[in-house]
Amino acid sequence: METQGLLEKILDWHERFTIERSKDDNSFYFSRKVDNSFLEEMDSFNSIFSFDYSCIKDGYDISIEWEKVYLKEGEIITISLFESDLNDAGLVVFEDWTSFFERQDYLFSIPDNFLILEESRIFPGDGNNETFRRYQDFNKLLKLLDSNADYVQKKSTVVVDEYIFLHRGRLLLPFVTCEKWKEQEINGLGILLSLFDESSHSEQKKSIFKEALYSFLMNVSEGSRFIYLVDNFGEFAKRVNENFQLFVSEFSFDAVRLEYEEKKREYLVKLNNVLSSVQSKMLGIPVSLAVTALNLGGMNKIQISASTLLLKVAIVIYGFFIFIMLANTNSTLNSIKTEYKGLMNRLEYAYPNESESIEEAKKELNSRLIFQKGILVFFAILAAVMISLTFIFLK
Fold this sequence. Notes:
Low-confidence stretches: none
Strand order of the largest sheet: 1-2-5-3-4
Distance between the termini: 116 Å
Mean pLDDT: 80
Number of strands: 11
Order of helices and strands: HEEHEEEHEHHEEHEEEHHHHHHHH
Radius of gyration: 44 Å
Helix content: 55-70%
C-alpha cells in the first residue's frame, strides 16, 4: 500500500478511535474493543507496522503478543505505533503543527504528504488551510534565499546553518527559528516570487537582490538578521522591486537609444549611397563634351557634319537617360523617406518617453534628404546646361 493509502488508514483510526501521542516513548496509540472485524483489520497491517498491543490488568500495563490478542475478545486493548516504525514506512505523522515545525528539515523540504492529527487532515490536499499556506510561503522564502546566496552552509543534507552573500562585502545570514510567519503572511513575498519567476535579466536580479539585502541587514546584528528580515520582508521586497524597475527603465532607455541611432546611421548611409551613384554618372557629361571637342578638331567638313548629327542623337539619348536616372533617384529618396518616417513613428509610439530624441533623429534624416534632393536639382540643371552648350558648340 502506498504512503497516501497508509496515511488515510491512520486518519481513519484517528477519526474512529482518537489517536493520541505519548511523549514518554514517542509513540501514537489508540484503544478499541477486540472483535472479529478488529482482528481482520489489524492482521492486514501487521506486515507493514510493528504494533504493540497491551491492556490494563490490576493497574498495570500488560503487553500482549499478537498471536494471543484474540484471547482478549470483548475487552478493550491499546494499540501503539512508534514514530521510528512510521519513519521506516516513509510516513510523516504529527500530533499538531507545533510538533511538526520542531522538525527543521521539514521547513526546508515539504513532505509529499503528511498527516496532522489535530487537523484530522492529510496535507497538501487542496491546500485550503491557512497554516499550510503560510508554511508553503516560508519554504518559498528559504528557497529564494538559497537560490540567491553565493554559498550555503548546512547542518545536514537539508537543514541550512547560514546563507553567505558576497557583494560589497561578506554578509552572513544565519538561519534561526522564528514564529511570526506562522501568525501572519510574509508581506511582499509574492512580488519577489513573480519577479524571479521571469527568466529575463536573471543575473541582474540576483545582483540587485544581494545589494538590497546587504544594505538592509548590514547594520543588524548577525544573530538577529533572519528574524529582522522575516519581520520586515515587505520593506525589503519593495526595495528590490524598485531597484529592479529602475534598472529596467535604464536598460530600456539604452536599448531604445541604440536602436534609433543605429537605424539613423543606416538611413544616412542609404541616402549617401544614392547620391554617390548619381555623382559618378554625372561625371560623364563634361568628359563627353571634352572628347567631342577634341575629335571634331581634326575632321573635314563632311566628316564633321556626319559626326555632328550622330553626336546630337547620342547626346539626346544620353540626356534622356540622365533625366530618367535623376527621376528614379528622386523616387528612391522618397521611398527611403517613407521607410524611415514609418519606423521612427513606430518607435515614438512604442517608447513615448524617448519621443524627443527620436524626433531629433528624424529631423537629421529629413535635413540630409533635403540636401540630397537639392543636389539632384543641381545635377538636373547642370545636365540641361551642358547638353544645351553641346548643341550650341556643334552648330
